[in-house]
Amino acid sequence: MSDSTEKKRVYGIDLGTTYSAIAYINDDGKPEIIPNSDNERITPSVVFFEEPSEEGKVGNVIVGKIAKESARTDAERVISFVKQEMGTSWTKEIDGITLNPEKVSSYILKRLAKDAKDTAGHDVKDVIITCPAYFGDAERKATIAAGQIAGLNVLQLLDEPVAAAMHYGLNKSEGDRTAIVYDLGGGTFDVTVVAIEKGNVRVVCTDGNHRLGGKNWDERIVEYFATKFAEASGTDKDAILGDADTLYDLQLQAEIAKQALSLRTSHKVSIAFEGNRERVEITREAFDEMTKDLLDQTVDLTQKMFDLAATKGVTKINDFLLVGGSTRMPQVMEMVKEKFASMVDNEPRPFEVDEAVATGAATFGLVKTIQEKVEEKKNDILNAQGAQDGKPVSAEDAQKAEEQAIRDVADDCALPVETVSGINGVKATTVASRSYGIRVLKAGSPVVYNMIVKQDVVPAVFEREFPVSEDNAAKLPLQVFSNNIMEKVASLDDSTTVGDAVMELEPGTPKGAMIRIKFTLTEEGVLSLDATDVTHGKPVHAEFEAKDGLSKEQIEAARKETADLVIG
Ligand code: AMP
Question: Ligand 1 pocket: which of 259, 329, 333 to mutate (most atoms <8 Å of CB)?
Fold first, then answer.
């Protein structure tokens, strides 16, 4: 692809809870973040719906820094942290438009793509979007739908820890090594143990809390400011926090204070409410004290991952990498050094805190593209040979064809043969971030039998036969659940519904007839179910739809509806 007009790039997008970023692989084969039109490398994941200038019309949709700032006076028209609602039935109505998480996220994606075009001339079409490892089927489908609504071609979703691991593993030639990635972002926390083995990236284990991030640290400061202000001015704290605009203002000031406390040991703000104005000071010491329980939650999960990795044979960990904006808080590094430095070989260090995930996704995009190209070329070569001599393909032929394909692709992409050969061999494996099971009866009571258990290696396939519980049932409901239980049997109370399917049974199927159930979980986190009636030997294919997912028609309708809205 020496002609740049032919270049079909794959972009990596980190669609974050608080900030998002987009990256690509440049002509030198190096990953690069594309700055936005404010010339910043990350864009706040905040969407502001401006008031319409005329009745019956919709206003401008503004995404990013301006949305975050200009919304101080218009909190009701601002949507932040929408990632936390992905896969749920959350909606908000603004100016007659019903917004769901997919649509709101699509605006953020559109802004990233538009800025890449405006600032660097990139036509963003094919993308890899990252999502937290613990995202289930509904959240993943919602993320893909957001991309489609934004007019993007989502090649694949990639787990954030895998993306960070890709960046860690593939951009150096250091040989085999292991790392623990501690990722504390704006709304989420993930901790992952990864192993790089002969150039392959393997997630050993991963866990997280999707309601724990910088936002929780901000909330503690908001609470502190409101309390101090109420004391000083004699106003009611609940009244302050109950006023949407004041609360929004306090949230903004809290985030600024938190970031200031990463550099200084104290910070002062000025707060106004109902004619009163007070100056309130917060010290780093007080901040650390009021958020210690939050930090402790990350310590517990991190310790758990060290322990789990050890049970999986990974006892030696080389690096401790800190990712995510919130790891800039000095309390995080202090804690990590105190608790975990002795458990790893090298000094814990920040690892491209804001950019590792987007960059890793872009790297993965390149890996995927190259592997597909090599496969395609190899098949072309073999097909041409087969047409010529009509003989079956030998292992030697296949090997030769692959080597030729690697040379051709290297030539096409203007990359060294060794680079393409290296990339072509890369494999990434991950683990299931939750358990998936089916509702069955155990001694007459319903339980969830986990077919795929959290931390199993993915792609995962599991089959098991279950007897039908009644004579002559015409239909057999198959209910799929997910949970965090790392055992085969989980209670319904600990599980949430993923979806269901109905299996049509042959007339006269007796009680005790065996049904074989098969679960498949792909690398992309997509779950499918197959059921076979063993007695009749007749395979029945059953698929289930995730709850709350958008249909193709709904995605298309949303894409049209949001197409004419302007992005600032
Ligand atoms: P991320 O989702 O990884 O972009 O992380 C965003 C979070 O990092 C937000 O809660 C930010 O307030 C927080 N953050 C960014 N910079 C700093 C800083 N210098 N000190 C403390 N927190 C920060």
Answer: 259
Domain ends where: 243, 273, 290?
290
Question: pTM value?
Answer: 0.87
306 within domain boundaries: no
Q: How far is the CA of 278 from the centre of ligand 1 (A)?
A: 26
Instruction: For residues 437 and 464, state if they share a domain.
Output: yes
Compute the distance from residue 78 Cα to the ligand 1 centre, in Å. 19
User: 423 and 436, same structural domain?
Assistant: no
* Claim to verify: residue 408 and residue 280 sit in the same structural domain: no
Atom of ligand 1 at shortest range from CA of 323:
3
Atom of ligand 1 nearest to the CA of 17: 2
The answer on 142 and 6 residing in a single domain is yes
pLDDT score for 560:
80
| Overall average pLDDT of the 527-544 stretch | 76
Ligand 1: residues with CB < 6 A are 16-19, 42, 185-186, 214-215, 255, 258-259, 262, 324-326, 328-329, 354
Segment (H or E) for 431: strand 428-431
The count of structural domains within the chain is 3
At residue 172, the pLDDT reads 60
Best CA proximity match to 82, nearest among 66, 102, 96, 64? 102
Which CATH number do you get for residue 442? 2.60.34.10
**Whether 452 contacts 481, CB under 8 Å:** no
CA of 44 to the centre of ligand 1 (A): 11
DSSP 345-358: SSPPEE-STTTHHH
CA proximity to 456, closest of 490, 482, 433, 488: 433
Q: Are residues 47 and 77 located together in one domain of the fold?
A: yes
The answer to whether residue 303 is domain-embedded is no
Give the count of beta carbons closer than 10 Å to the beta carbon of residue 136.
18
* CATH number of domain containing 552: 3.30.420.40
- 64 belongs to a structural domain: yes
Nearest-CA residue for ligand 1 atom 20 is 259
Q: Which atom of ligand 1 is closest in space to residue 19's alpha carbon?
A: 4
With beta carbons less than 8 A apart as the criterion, state whether 450 and 408 touch. no
Q: Could you tell me if 525 and 555 lie in one domain? A: no
Q: What is the rounded CA–CA span in Å between residue 112 and residue 160? A: 18
Confidence (pLDDT) at 182: 97
568: pLDDT confidence band, cut at 50, 70 and 90?
A: very low
Quote the Cα angle for 425-431-432, to 5°: 140
| Claim to verify: residue 219 and residue 176 sit in the same structural domain | no
| Ligand 1 atom with the shortest distance to the CA of 353 | 3
| Ligand 1 centre distance from Cα of residue 255 (Å) | 8
Q: Which of 160, 188, 326 to mutate to test the pocket of ligand 1 (most atoms within 8 A of CB)?
A: 326
Indicate if 451 and 568 belong to the same structural domain. no
Q: Give the CATH number of the domain where residue 255 resides.
A: 3.90.640.10
Domain range spanning residue 338?
1-208+316-430+548-568
Kindly report, residue by residue over 463-496, the tens digit of the pLDDT.
999 999 888 888 888 999 999 899 999 999 999 8
- A 10 A CB-CB count for 387 gives 8
How far away, in angstroms, is 330 Cα from ligand 1 center? 12
Probe target for ligand 1 pocket from 13, 14, 17, 18, with the most ligand atoms within 8 Å of CB = 18
Atom of ligand 1 nearest to the CA of 42: 4
Residue 543 lies in a domain: no
| Averaged confidence pLDDT in the chain | 90
Quickly state the pLDDT bin for 83 (edges 50, 70, 90): very high
Residue identified by tokens 């032919």 is 6
The 3-state DSSP class for residue 156 equals strand
